[in-house]
Amino acid sequence: MTQPASFHRARSAEAKQVREAAILEAARTLGRERGIRDVTLTDIAAQVGMHKSALLRYFETRERIFLELTAQGWREWSAALRALLQARDAADSAAVADAFAATLAARPVFCDLLAQAPLNLERNVSLEAVRDFKLVTLHEVALIGAEVDRLLGLDEQQALDLISTATGMAGALWQMASPGPRIRELYVTDPRLGHAVVEVEPRLRRILTAFLAGTTA
Amino acid sequence: MTQPASFHRARSAEAKQVREAAILEAARTLGRERGIRDVTLTDIAAQVGMHKSALLRYFETRERIFLELTAQGWREWSAALRALLQARDAADSAAVADAFAATLAARPVFCDLLAQAPLNLERNVSLEAVRDFKLVTLHEVALIGAEVDRLLGLDEQQALDLISTATGMAGALWQMASPGPRIRELYVTDPRLGHAVVEVEPRLRRILTAFLAGTTA
Predict the structure, then answer these.
(1) Which residues contact residue A26 at a Cβ distance below 8 angstroms, ignoring those fewer than 6 apart?
(2) pLDDT tens-place string over residues A167-190
(3) Which of A56, A190, B130, B170 has a beta carbon 3.0–4.6 Å from B104's, enabling a disulfide?
(4) Which chain A residues are Cβ-neighbours of B122 within 8 angstroms?
């Protein structure tokens, strides 16, 4: 008995989704282990057990894979942050700063991707991929903005400034805090370089606390 | 009549300095034209009229050239910023924020380098080069910190937070504001992507003004 064509299409679409999810998970694992910068398309193909040419049928470039992970990261971080904010009826600016800093610092791969996206990831993919990515981030920015407006009365520009400071500094501080073992050793052993050692969460919390205190004053 | 050996050494050291300066200037010119990311060692060698193998006798890697430009950028920006701050007997936090935002936004190549340094430049050079670079930046950070302490009474940690926010966001915002002509066209023509268009100076000024108002409150 032959299956109807629609059954085959559904089976095939499902298999494609499973394969895409496996590729993204492999890229995420490697990115967590060694940093996004040092993960090649060949590494991802080896990790997922596919030939590189087969992998390219699912994602056009290495950057397309990581841009998709960045979009997933925005959705997942935004949901976690908004869950924290929605649990409150009213919040002072320090509590909001704390929620931003804690949820970002808990997501090192996302912090790495936040810095990589405008420098590298958006530059080796199709225009359509950039458009889709931007629409995801702007949608999440609007959802987060609505929560900080409800809690602190921030207008649209203030909310945009807050979210771009939080995500921009999370990316920048994570890169400074993760220079690799060789340079980190240098920082901690040379007493003149003490200020080169960066801790992401406390610094991000202080910066956002000051920003919000100044914005809501 | 033969010249003494010391004369030849001095001539040779001077010629080396002239050649190094020409290489750095060529890299800066290309970086300004097309962005640091898209400038290769081969491009720099062609611009300065040297063979690539000859250029490698002056700088070990492409990243070493741009890290040296970043160090020069720190010295030059710090001097310009401190000149503005030193001209004041007392300053409100908005005037200090304005001085940081204006001097950074006026230096697009430095903003580009600020984002590239921790992601890419510090990772393909010798440990000694990273140490020298960090000592330059920490020295300038201390000089700037002394000025903001004098004007606003910031302690060492507050000054570090201010300077890392200013330089971190200058780098991040510049990258967002400079996605290349193809993507910029997409942002300005698709009305759903209006918030993806970033202007560095006004946003940086607002963020630093709020940060300083909250810090000095």
Answers:
(1) A44, A47, A48
(2) 999 999 999 999 888 898 999 899
(3) B170
(4) 179, 183
